[in-house]
Amino acid sequence: MKASSTATRARGADFDAIVVGAGFGGLYAVHKLRDGLGLDVQAFDSADDVGGTWYWNRYPGALSDTESYCYRFSFDKELLQQGHWKSRYLTQPEILDYLSGFADRFDLRRSYQFGTKVTAARFDESAGLWNVTTDKGRTLTAKYLVTGLGLLSATNKPPFKGIDGFKGETYHTGAWPEGIDLAGKRVGVIGTGSTGVQVIIALAPVAKHLTVLQRSAQYVVPIGNGPESEERINEYKAQYEAIWKQVKESAVAFGFAESTVPAMSVSEAQRERVFEDAWKRGGGFYFMFATFSDIATSPEANAAAADFIKRKIAGAVKDPDTARKLMPTDLYAKRPLCGTDYYDVYNRANVTLADVKADPIAEFTPTGIRLQSGAEHELDVVVFATGFDAVDGNYTRIDMRGRSGVTIREKWKEGPLGYLGMMESDFPNFFMILGPNGPFTNLPPSIETQVEWISDTIAHMERKGARTVEPTQAAEDEWIAACRTIADMTLFPKAQSWIFGANIPGKKNAVMFYMAGLCNYTKALNSVKESGYGAMIFDREPAMVV
Prior knowledge:
Layout: E1 15-20, H1 24-36, E2 41-45, H2 53-56, E3 63-67, H3 77-82, E4 89-91, H4 92-105, E5 112-114, E6 118-124, E7 129-134, E8 139-147, E9 169-172, E10 186-190, H5 194-203, E11 209-214, E12 220-222, H6 230-238, H7 240-248, H8 268-281, H9 284-289, H10 299-316, H11 320-326, E13 337-339, E14 351-355, E15 361-365, E16 368-371, E17 376-378, E18 381-384, H12 393-396, E19 399-401, H13 408-411, E20 430-432, E21 438-439, H14 443-464, E22 469-471, H15 473-488, E23 513-514, H16 518-530, E24 536-538
Parallel strand pairs: 1-2, 1-8, 2-5, 6-19, 8-20, 9-18, 10-11, 10-18, 11-14, 12-13, 21-23
Antiparallel strand pairs: 3-4, 6-7, 7-8, 15-16, 16-17, 22-24
């Protein structure tokens, strides 16, 4: 139901709300605040059009590893019925087309200024407004600031020695230019995370030679991709009410039922059958969460899953030394990875695997990369699949200041905080979509959940005539403690992973996600609302300046 259009601009403000970002989160926020609440909204994105992460991630092989039928918005029933896709998993161009069509459907582009980066955001306590500055030199004011900066969009490009002297081409997968053709070239890929796996699979058949510079051996299961028939797509559409109910009442929200069976409660032969069936079906999150209930929590169950994958690696890779390098030694407790015939790539004559943990990169040379052992790899192109300064990276790169001028960098110097993954104490009227300590799930359902909660909270403020809202420090501390307690009940903190910031040198290992699932997360949000927002401070008085 649309709120009254009498919601008026705060005194002296340019807009009611400023939204940053044009991905799933930013687009839905503009729609909910502008079309749902009748607010005057200005939005920004540094790209030239909508898409967010999917605008920039144009690298070869880019696709979602959430199945197509539930990697989309669920709130618009008509849009769900109009959905179309070709395969079980959406490619990057398909996702970009979907978001572009979503923006067309609700005429969202008219609220955006594209090609514009927000460089600073400062809260003016006396006026109760956010002052938002862009790289175009403009500063605009608004009562509310909503950021959809993305979990994985602040690119991480390690400062290797000699890189400026490299005469070839370099690209980061998270900022991939259009029209790049790497066919027939000697390509080096640094990194074997989710993106690295996808780009390695895509480039192996077309590169003259592909050198994979692997920092950490990974557990990669098949993705099980393939064409999806119109008949199957129509079956999804007919069942969408039940599908979305299941998704939102589940933990990881990937559209499958998570297992309730502990791995060690069945025989070894039964475990093998379950793992084999999941391997044949495909899906990284499916393999971790639909096989047994305790892969992510029990060392014994985790070892059973890891050993199964290691046996698959040994069976797929023909060269024993290459197979040895590909064998993971860490826990199976990072973001689950999947791809099509990943390990078979290393049987190709034009593919070389370099273990740069055992023999690190010493420097770039004009013609390639030299390792510490002196081994040299001659390259025409280097692809950085080195990931992102995840979750909080885009926030700490903006000069963001709350009450009394406190910066977000200062607040988060010991690790990112964030109440409910959406708010921060001392930062009034500030809402983050997919901020720190939000749910670890398929993202569109979590984005919808958060944007709807943000919209409800703002509507509550407008009804009561509140000037500001922010979480209490006690509520935030309690939330962070709960996130840490839940994370420590799993094996994820014991693995070196970007999920806890381990991919950024010098970054403190910190909890960044609420890992109890979307269903429990939604219950937590509802309890805050049902309590009358007892965890919030409304209309806090400005600090006295002495």
